[in-house]
Amino acid sequence: MRRTDKEVTDFEVIDQILQQCNVLRLGFWDGNEPYVVPVNFGYEKKTGDKIHVYAHGALAGRKIEIIKNGHTRVAIQMDCANNLKLNPSNPCDSTMEFMSVMGAGNVHLLEGEDKRRGLEIIFEHLSGIVPDLPPHAEDRINVLCVELDWVTAKRWPNPKSSS
Q1: In Å, how far from its chain's centre is CA 83?
Q2: Dist. CA 10–CA 100, nearest whole Å
Q3: Is the pTM value of this prediction over 0.70?
Q4: Which of 37, 42, 99, 100 is close enough to 155 for a disulfide, judged by CB 3.0 to 4.6 Å?
Q5: What is the DSSP string of 15-29?
Q6: pLDDT tens digit string along 1-29?
Q7: How many CA atoms, within 13 angstroms, populate the side-chain half-sphere of residue 55?
Q8: SS3 of residue 95 by DSSP
Q9: What's the pLDDT band for 163 if we cut at 50, 70, 90?
Q10: CA distance 153 to 88
């Protein structure tokens, strides 16, 4: 990362940033061109500082076709706490406060109890509760899981930075 003064390497701090974000941008490659779609998401921490990200969507559509056609490598990006710190006397000396997370991994469609659990994780992340889902609630949607191979984060201002 070029701007190491903004880099976040502590996994617990990355988790804190993830907790504050509620829109994930999923970046696909369909074999011809990139396709990026914003989605609501949930996530869970796995052993060894690994993260699984969950999103839901319609039973059919472009992202589902891309996955079914074998293009399962995706990139993720999310940001939050965006705030312009404008310097009115010199706008070019302004800065932006932010927190962001990026990563990449493989996506797959969930089935059965895994699909239902993924939906619960999404609701829990967005609302703070695991709702009592009606029977077969997951039958009307697809739930995707991205198993991230790597994740990186940035924030500004960054308490670890002396700048």
Answers
A1: 20
A2: 14
A3: yes
A4: 99
A5: HHHHHH---EEEEEE
A6: 566 767 888 899 999 999 999 999 999 99
A7: 21
A8: strand
A9: very low
A10: 29
3-class DSSP state for residue 154?
Answer: strand
The answer to whether 66 and 119 are in contact (CB under 8 A) is no
The helix, strand and coil proportions of the chain, stated in percent and rounded to the nearest 5, come to: 25, 45, 30
**Quick check: helix, strand or coil at residue 114?**
helix
Q: Which residues contact 149 (CB under 8 A, 6 or more apart)?
A: 103, 104, 105, 106
**In 3D, which of 102, 104, 149, 79 has the Cα closest to residue 1?**
102
Give the containing element (helix H, strand E) for 120: helix 112-127
Backbone angles phi, psi at 91, to 5 degrees: -55, -30
Structural domains in the chain, sorted by start = 7-155 (2.30.110.10)
